[in-house]
Design brief:
alpha+beta, 18% strand
């Protein structure tokens, strides 16, 4: 049986090492951007979890949240 927590921990460690190597080798700060349109509960929770996970790996997180009424053009502008 595969246990999820040890696998997740190992993946986070590998990602953190890769991020550190990227910074050291190229002077680049790894960054993940997420775009959330609206405020549906499950989507908001997933969005927040991404930010927390990136913080745990020393990767910056750019959090963009738009209202559900945002037009397609507005969403594309953010991308």
């Amino acid at each position: 049986m595969l246990r999820g927590a040890p696998v997740a921990r190992r993946i986070r460690q590998d990602v953190q090492i890769a991020a550190e190597n990227l910074r050291a080798e190229f002077g680049v700060q790894p960054t993940v951007a997420t775009l959330l349109v609206g405020n549906a509960g499950p989507s908001t929770a997933y969005h927040e979890a991404i930010g927390k996970a990136m913080g745990g790996c020393n990767i910056d997180h750019v959090d963009v949240t738009l209202p559900v009424s945002a037009s397609t053009n507005r969403v594309v502008e953010e991308l």
